[in-house]
Amino acid sequence: MSAYASLSGHFDRIAAMSNAIGILQWDSDAMMPTGAAGARAESMALLRVLQHEMAVDPRLGDWLAEAEGDADLTDWERANLREIRRVWSVQTALPADLVAASSKAVSACEMAWRQARAESDFPSLLPYLAEVLKLQREAGVAKGERLGLGVYDALLNDYEPGGRAQKIDALFDDLAAFLPGFTEEALAAQARRPAPAPLEGPFPVEAQRRLGTRIMTALGYDFSRGRLDVSTHPFCGGADNDVRITTRYDETDFSKALMGVIHETGHALYEQGRPAAYMGQPVGQARGMSVHESQSLLMEMQACRSPQFLAYAAPVMREAFGASGPDWEAEALWRRYTRIERGFIRVDADEVTYPAHVILRYRLEKALIADAMPLAELPMAWNAGMKDLLGIIPPNDALGCLQDIHWPSGGWGYFPTYTLGAMTAAQLFDAACRAEPDALPGIARGDFAPLVGWLRTNIYEQGSRYETDELLTRATGRPLDASVFKAHLARRYLPAG
């Protein structure tokens, strides 16, 4: 057996372990009874240690060195070696006891977060979150020493390979300067138009679920390889060829669950469309979280808040809830789905104010990782940041620093990928609509095949074959360009002329 074949077989086994962990994690977040949390944490910790041991197998270094000298490998295989070395370099930096301790701390913190969020009780979460943060710092130090990176960049690298805080700082500082003035201008333009009337509920959960599954099917989600469930925080998870999503329902406002479903379906389409021949290999994985978030935000913000989507969806919504009247017409729904409002909850935010939520979290997590701010001061710092960036102050911590699961689940360094993803989404959607003239007319008919087909060819099926900048340049003709995102916002939210 060649060195490359040995590596490939080894990583197929690691992928099988990841799939088992993925299903157990989905169950923990969606269906597990609370009394099972302790035993589940022990099981997850053991599986993650075993997976880590496989990823740092002493044979991998020798196999890599030999395989990288093989002149007969294909371009895909060479890209796979690059990604295997990336995984190996990071994993060998982490001691097994740190992996186990982090897994247990995250499991305990996630359960504590659910109760703390429900009760708006940050002090009850503080000791659990402090332990997660301490271990994340240790992991960042270990990875940074191996990769020659600072602590935050080492954590960011897990989600955005090659990403650096210095570049994000410049980008986010620019957005933080641009968005307040733009938001004021867009709100003023909005005030000159008739405000959409509230849609009268209630909207039964089962009717919302049927609507969600119908839209998921139109988008191209394969229910033979996934399912829709409920969780405290919407997410996409599961395993290879078993891609599961969740949402949460509010019987007074069906749009929250529907847009959550569309967002997570964007993630799921990417996962379901990854290259089948390399599904278990690092090169077959998604190309970092900014690209992954671009797929969810492309569907939620670019495609499914367009006039074309509402032309298709308006009669579908009326049928779902037995509704009628002018407030349910496409134009009124479009004004509702593109309404700008300063709000407390990130996942419910419009695309104009959404980046401010991300910039806040990015700045806070950088300060916490650098130990430049005591964790106990997070609620106060959060509220101050919300006032500066959005002009509002959360009335409680459930609507403030307790709203997201990312930090309790160990996702430090993840947040900036949301806004990087929003910009990437605008650029990809623009390129897709130019390359596929039937993309927008298709959406108006409920036919997403032209759009999804372009994404499948240019993004899904490419996996991690290319680095992020090259992938985006191949798909759109240029690397990430914030001007495309700004131009999109201006077209949608400012009057023409």
UniProtKB/TrEMBL annotation:
Enzyme Commission number(s): 3.4.17.19
Keyword Protease: yes
Catalysed transformations (reactions): Release of a C-terminal amino acid with broad specificity, except for -Pro
Gene3D superfamilies: 1.10.1370.30
GO BP annotation list: proteolysis
Binding-site residues for Zn(2+), renumbered to this chain: 263, 267, 293
Keywords: Carboxypeptidase, Hydrolase, Metal-binding, Metalloprotease, Protease, Zinc
Cofactor remark from the record: Binds 1 zinc ion per subunit.
GO molecular-function term, one example from the UniProt record: metal ion binding
Catalytic residues, chain numbering: 264 (proton donor/acceptor)
Protein role: Broad specificity carboxypetidase that releases amino acids sequentially from the C-terminus, including neutral, aromatic, polar and basic residues.
PANTHER family assigned: CARBOXYPEPTIDASE 1, METAL-DEPENDENT CARBOXYPEPTIDASE
Protein name: Metal-dependent carboxypeptidase
Source organism (scientific name): Ancylobacter mangrovi
